[in-house]
């Protein structure tokens, strides 16, 4: 009997449907952020420097500098990760071919090469307005700015982005998550906390006014950022309230955007009581919103468990959001994508019905015993089998491809 067959038997003895789990996993789409490939710089400026609102740290050689390089790198990621995937783009990844326009004038045609890329690979696209790293981000403010010229610019940008998202949806025949995140906030204690939020609310109302097919509108909150330590306009309460009162707008949860002891795994089953969709940015905050590579750690597994045991694989839209410039970027991408999928598989292989029954019977002794014993069940054998059936490297050998690509491609950049 193969290791897979043996492992399968052990899980089945606990009532786990292993083949059903693998089918569900293969059908679950992970939206992979394009910005791990170039430290969130995009293609607008030749120098590729971030100028405000967001930071990346590290200078590992070989970052993608052109659409062609980013697409080639992303192909490597696709070839080393199992399961269904989408590519998540930011507006700053527009491809201008010499006719650059400003962000408030971008059009679907500037993303036509991405549509061709996605079509050829049979994958979907998600999208994000880029409200950072731009001269119109004045005093660190965009959609909440008291300067009406600034605020109008970013409203036009976000409207343009929704139309581009609708174009992706139409071209690719699948819904597109369009996520608004803004860096707006204040370093020191503000005198007016409501005014900026009322301006943001008005901006969002204008942005979402047009009805567009196939666009899943999202807003992403944050607790604080470097330089905006005292006040964030788009707080959790603000966007939760906005989403709750605007059907069709969803509150995107980034697990780096809360106080360090708050967990997104517990927010998922709270939101499931009220929303038919919960978009996620899965990341790894190290002491703060540091955007480290997603690991197979406790919280990633807890997030996966809440998705799986609440039968919410079709309601929770899983996106990744991290950017580590200090290590091989393709390796960073692949580790995080594989870990998200591993966490989902781990969750699918738990005797979830049995565990729920133990909770309802208030048998917390057995529940603790069972969940701890499950940690050393032969999960790796099922994972390796899954990778083989998906036609991707199962174990350590995927890193050989990274090393080879670094030697032949990345080191030449
Ligand atoms: C920033 C937010 C946001 C960005 C991306 C690039 O704190 O998490 O989602 O990381 O849009
Ligand atoms: Zn995020």
Structure in words:
- Helices cover 42% and strands 14% of the residues.
- An eight-stranded parallel beta sheet has the order 3-2-1-12-9-8-6-4. It has a two-stranded antiparallel sheet with strand order 5-7.
- Helix 3 (67-80) links the parallel strand 1 (29-33) and strand 2 (84-90).
- It is α/β, with parallel strands linked by helices and 413 residues long.
- Helix 8 packs parallel to helix 9.
- The protein has helices spanning 3-12, 18-27, 67-80, 112-121, 148-172, 194-207, 236-245, 264-271, 298-309, 329-348, 352-360, 364-374, 379-389, 398-408; strands at 29-33, 84-90, 124-128, 176-180, 185-186, 215-220, 231-232, 249-254, 278-282, 284-286, 288-292, 316-320.
- The mean pLDDT is 97.
- It has a single domain, classed as Divalent-metal-dependent TIM barrel enzymes (TIM Barrel, Alpha-Beta Barrel), CATH 3.20.20.
- It contains 14 helices and twelve strands.
- The site of L-rhamnitol (RNT) has 12 residues, from loops.
Query: Which ions, cofactors or small ligands are bound in this entry?
Result: L-rhamnitol, zinc ion
Rg, Å, rounded: 22 Å
Write down the overall mean pLDDT.
97
Number of helices: 14
What is the makeup of the main sheet?
8 strands, parallel
Q: Name the overall outline.
A: globular
Strand content: 5-15%
Largest sheet: spatial strand order: 3-2-1-12-9-8-6-4
Looking at the structure, the CATH topology is TIM Barrel
Return residue spans where pLDDT drops below 50 for at least 5 consecutive residues: none
- The total of beta strands comes to 12
Supply the CATH class.
Answer: Alpha Beta
Intertermini distance: 47 Å
CATH superfamily: Divalent-metal-dependent TIM barrel enzymes
Tell me the structural class.
alpha/beta
Helix amount: 40-55%
Count of the domains:
1
Order of helices and strands: HHEHEHEHEEHEEHEHEEEHEHHHHH
């Amino acid at each position: 009997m193969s290791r897979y067959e043996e492992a399968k038997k052990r899980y089945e003895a606990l009532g786990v449907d292993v083949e059903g789990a693998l089918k569900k996993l293969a059908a679950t789409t992970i939206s992979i952020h394009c910005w791990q490939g170039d430290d969130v710089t995009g293609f607008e400026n030749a120098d590729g420097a971030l100028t405000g609102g967001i930071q990346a740290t590290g200078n590992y050689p070989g970052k993608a500098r052109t659409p062609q390089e980013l697409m080639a790198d992303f192909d490597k990621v696709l070839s080393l990760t199992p399961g269904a995937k989408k590519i998540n783009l930011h507006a700053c990844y527009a491809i201008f071919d010499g006719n650059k326009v400003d962000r408030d004038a971008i059009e679907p045609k500037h993303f036509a090469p991405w549509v061709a890329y996605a079509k050829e690979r049979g994958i979907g696209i998600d999208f994000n307005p880029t409200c950072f790293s731009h001269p119109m981000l004045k005093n660190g403010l965009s959609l909440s700015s008291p300067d009406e010229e600034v605020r109008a610019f970013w409203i036009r940008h976000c409207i343009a982005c929704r139309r581009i998202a609708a174009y992706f949806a139409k071209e690719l025949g699948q819904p597109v998550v369009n996520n608004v995140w803004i860096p707006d906030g204040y370093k020191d204690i503000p005198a007016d906390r409501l005014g900026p939020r009322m301006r943001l609310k008005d901006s969002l109302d204008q942005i979402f006014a047009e009805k567009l097919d196939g666009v899943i509108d999202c807003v992403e909150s944050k607790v604080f950022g470097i330089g905006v330590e005292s006040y964030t306009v788009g707080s959790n309460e603000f966007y939760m309230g906005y989403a709750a009162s605007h059907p069709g707008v969803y509150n995107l949860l980034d697990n780096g955007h809360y106080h360090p002891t708050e967990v997104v795994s517990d927010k998922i089953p709270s939101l499931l009581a009220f929303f038919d969709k919960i978009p996620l940015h899965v990341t790894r905050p190290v002491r703060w919103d540091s955007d480290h590579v997603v690991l197979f750690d406790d919280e990633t597994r807890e997030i996966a468990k809440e998705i799986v045991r609440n039968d919410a694989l079709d309601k929770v839209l899983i996106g990744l959001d991290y950017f580590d410039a200090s290590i091989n970027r393709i390796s960073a991408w692949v580790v995080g994508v594989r870990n998200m999928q591993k966490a989902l598989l781990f969750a699918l292989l738990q005797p979830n019905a049995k565990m729920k029954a133990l909770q309802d019977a208030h048998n917390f002794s057995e529940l603790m015993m069972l969940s701890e014993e499950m940690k050393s069940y032969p999960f790796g054998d099922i994972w390796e089998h899954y990778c083989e059936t998906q036609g991707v490297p199962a174990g350590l050998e995927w890193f050989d491809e990274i090393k080879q690509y670094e030697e032949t491609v990345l080191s030449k950049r």
